[in-house]
Amino acid sequence: MSADMPTARRGAFSGMSNESFLTLFMIGVLVVLFAIACVFVPNFYLLQNVVNLVTNFWFVIILGIGVTFLLITGNFDMSVGGVVALTGVLSVWFCQGYHVSQNALANGLGLPYGVAVGLALLGALGIGAINAFFVARLKVPSIIVTLGTMMVARGIAQVVTQGAQRNTSLPDVFGVVGNTFVPGTSVKIAVLIMVGLVVAAFVVEKMTVAGRRTYLIGANAVAARLSGIKVARHLALLFMLSSLLAGVTGILLASEFKAGLSGRATGYEFDALVIALLGGVSIAGGFGSVLGMFVGAIILAVVTSSATGLLLSPDWQFTLKGIVTFVAILAQRLALDKRKG
Q: Which domain holds residue 292?
């Protein structure tokens, strides 16, 4: 009977796609990491801590949606952190009272909150449009373009805040969205928005023509174009979507802290990339999923939370995250290669 066990195992996974296999594999990695954290970190297993693993990383997960779709096509979006900062700063500036103080940083345009948010999101879409134009039309490598627009977005935010921050002369309504909780819980509305966006992205990815086109472009852009897919337009829409999601994140964070800070979301673009790679998204395109990205986000949350619980210094926390990320991605490759073999 033991001689038949390897065959049985292969049979159990033979009908599973590589994408599903990797997602299941990373769920296993998550379980192992969580068990290790429970051993070394006091009270890590408590329900509230488990809830915090998701609720404390909602912003990176929202950014990860757009980054994942673009990675599947073989493109990067490193501008999302800058877009978060820009959108938050613009929403504050647009909302601040008009000529209410001698302090320039306390004065804004005095627009209604809804108008301010709409205009700030247009600013985010503007960055997405620039990315789309250079990548989809001029064929400039996406990593170069988006690193440039990240600096442009953050630079504009620094100009508007004069290198500081804007946090005064704001109407009370400004902080409502970011600080409203689901009744009877400690979960903020922003977390529900994140869950809704993940579900919507999963549906688009798995059940729509647009989702299938995304995978086809990543697998072979030339073949996709020859089959009638408007590759440039599709990529443009994905870059716009990624910037819009970053803009939504910026609005929510600015509302939560009631401040526009040019340095906000520094490094978030790398966190979004890391959780996508942890979730099994191929950096070469054509492979990956939003569900996998979500699992990758929880893995990163477990590592970050356990490092904090162990009272590690920020330098060691960063090092630990890097080691776990490297080992997890290497394990993915080895598991996938072994399966193919």
A: 20-30+44-340
Q: What are phi and psi of 166, to 5 degrees?
A: -115, 120
Q: Which of 265, 250, 262 is nearest to 160 (CA)?
A: 262
Q: CB count, 10 Å around CB of 218?
A: 23
- Domain membership of residue 15 (yes or no) is no
pTM over 0.85: yes
pLDDT in tens, 138-168: 999 999 999 999 999 999 999 999 988 999 9
The domain that contains 193 carries what CATH number?
1.10.3470
Question: Would 277 be classed as within a structural domain?
Answer: yes
In-domain check, residue 38: no
Residue 5 pLDDT exceeds 70? no
Whole-number Å distance between alpha carbons of 26 and 197:
22
Whether residue 175 contacts residue 255, with contact meaning beta carbons closer than 8 Å, is answered with yes
Cα 293 to Cα 289: distance, rounded to the nearest angstrom = 6
Which residues pair with residue 181 across a beta bridge?
188
Q: Specify the number of domains making up the chain.
A: 1
Please give the angle made by the CA atoms of 16, 22 and 24, to the nearest 5 degrees.
75
